[in-house]
Amino acid sequence: MVFNFLVLSKDNMDLAYSKKVMEHFRHPRNMGEIKNPDGVAKVGNRVCGDIMKMYLQIDGEVIKDVKFQTLGCGAAIATSSVTTELVKGKTVGEAEKLTNEEVARVLGGLPIAKKHCSLLAVEALHQAIEDYRRKKK
Amino acid sequence: MICYLNFEFMRQVYLDNAATTAVDREVFEAMRPYFLKNFGNASEVHGWGQEARTAVEGAREKVAEALGAEAKEIIFTSCATESINLAHKGVVEAVLQQGETRDVRRKTKRPHIVTTAIEHKAVLETCRHLEEAGMAEVTYLPVDQYGLVSVGAVEKAIRPETVLVSVMYVNNEVGTVEPIAEIGRMLKKTKGIFFHTDATQAMQYLDCDVDKLGVDLLSFTGHKFYAPKGVGGLYVRTGAPLVRQMDGGGQEGGLRAGTENVPYIVALAKALELSSKFKVQSSKVMNLRDELIAGVLKIPGAKLTGHSVKRAPHIASFTIDGVEGEAVLLMLADRGIAAASGSACTSGALRASHVLLAMGVPAEVAHGSLRLSLGKETTEEEIEYVLKELPPIVKRLRQMAPRL
Question: Which of B19, B325, B364 sits opposite A11 (nearest CB)?
Answer without folding.
Answer: B19
